[in-house]
Design goal:
The complex is a heterodimer. Chain A is of the alpha+beta class. Chain A has nine helices and 13 strands. Chain B has one domain: HypD, alpha/beta domain 2 (Rossmann fold, 3-Layer(aba) Sandwich). In chain B, helix 1 runs parallel beside helix 11, helix 2 runs parallel beside helix 16 and helix 7 crosses helix 12. In chain B, 55% of the residues are buried. The chains are: A alpha+beta, B alpha/beta.
Amino acid sequence: MQKRITTAHGGGGEEMRELISGLFFKYFSNPYLEKLNDFAKVDISSRRIALSTDSFVVEPWSFPGGNIGDLAVCGTVNDISMSGATPLYLTCGFILPEGMPLEDLEEIVSAMARRASEAGVLIVTGDTKVVGRGAGPFINTAGVGAVPDGIDIGGEMAKVGDEVIVTGAVGSHGIAVLSKREGLSFSTEVLSDCAPLNKMVAALIENGIIPKVLRDPTRGGVAGALNEISVQSGVEIEIEDEAIPIEQGVRSACDMLGYDPLHIANEGCMLVVVSQKDAQRALELIQSCKYGEGAARIGRIAEGAPRVTAKTLLGTKRLVDPPSGELLPRIC
Amino acid sequence: MSHPDRSDPGLLNKLLDKIRRYDGPPLTIMEVCGTHTVSIARMGLSALLPKGVSLLSGPGCPVCVTPVDIFDEAIYLAREKDVIIATYGDAMRVPGSETSLLEVKAGGGEVYPVYSTTDALDLSQKNKNREVVFIGLGFETTSPTVAHALITAKNLGVNNFSVLSAHKVLLPAMEALLLDPEVKIDAFLCPGHASMVLGWRCYEELAEKYGTPSVVAGFEPHEILLAINMLLAQAKEGAVRVENAYPKAVSEEGNTSALNLLERVFKKVDSKWRGLGMLPGSGYELSDEFADYDARRRFLSGVKFDSSEPAGCSCADVLRGVIAPAQCPLFAKRCTPKDPVGACMVSSEGACGAHYRYREV
């Protein structure tokens, strides 16, 4: 019979210990975790640290190109990386529904381990709770990273003349989740772009390119992230519609549902604002990284009131608004 | 990998140049279809048209032309009749007289966005002890899919699924606009999707009767520019024809099997439109064969809403092309996609929504 999560797995007793040693240790093996304390003591040799936390509630938990475990690691790794920090350690809290097959949990945990290993981070402490049926699994991860000296990256740092790069095709994650959740199929299968971006950030910094702003355009998409940056930095951001990389499958899905690809969530690409003199070198470095092949220069920082504009296909200029409300499919 | 506007820039420039060199008589073109409105707004075409040529957004956004009554009926069903409402997502945000389906859902009402009528039918099969009502909106583009789902439901003997039909017939609305003394339309850019069902020949009667050149257009930027060029060429030579600039999808006679589905499942009735009022023969009600699947006959007998548009809202004038969205006093002020007053701001393909989202600067 299929083994399932029961309330005992969150009860602090023997079953929970079995789950920890049988499953979590198997995948997340490291000396910090295996001490079995309620905390992890870690060494960080940096004057400044970056902290971040994120909760993952994606429904369905598995989708083309990944699962909630991939997201839980990549999401927090990426949030820390957007400060220029090197992500080091993660914590992990599971909220699991009673009745969840253990093999599903194993699929999630193995994805987390794979991503943590890829990103070079350790999951050093965790927690498990079991709740009634009907929702979840949910995961919260928090992370800590070391900020190298002299690095000051933030949404408020964009200056007139800087350039904007996007490191990969946009809109894939949101469409992949939607297609699985709603059982929709489009002309080509769209896979989530979910990926850790810390190696790409490191490649820039190690080569002497210090970005002004790094932002992973998750919920709210590229349009949301660019609008945030424009407000934080008090600048206009001009992009070019034609320069933005979008996969055909994402394009058709958005055409069909009435969505703007710039409003769709991403989990494996980022926006990089760099000085004009660094732009070409930054693009080349990004393109030489895993997950950066599709990078493109998409626009620049201009003088003007905080807003985002796009040069249209025909050369006119339009506003790019952030999305509002839940994205709801239109009729035809 | 491709780019957002996939059309070949060389071809686009050629087509645009030709439009800009137009020196014929002034021409007001109505794009009937909401998807065209979005595409035109997104590429920023209006600012590039030569003097005397203008584009008007028409009544082709299904959510927009649906009168407030329908939303009030759906809200009533969700609140008072304990039914599950299944609807296309963008209908959820349209304000009814007092509230919207989205707010009803937030308050615990069972309202589910679906992507097709088939999804709604599936919902009824997963909830066999509940009634599921699908809100049927839209033109001949969507009504055949509803017809198909209803035939499937009947064949399977499903007894907890019904449709609240607000489906519209396209041609009477186009004719009503031509007859409206406030509205000035010289030519029609005809919808691509609806024409796939209806066929391009259906526009000939109107074209002849009112002297209105009409061209069926696809949705890619170059397809729209090509169709506009064809309309300008007709205007210049003083011709009135129906032409098909979307032959890869639209045929002369349309999709016969879809038309047969409509014939069987629906009957044409007089119908109220937002903006256009009551138009004879402009709505689709379920035929007597499908009376058991008609949510209105099942749950709303004796219940009648005669709701009016929200105060100050100019959707009625926008839908008829009497004013441009930006001319409405509420546009981008009290009425935005985040907090819409009128239906035209709600839908992603509504004229106000498209003009707001892609407004030129």
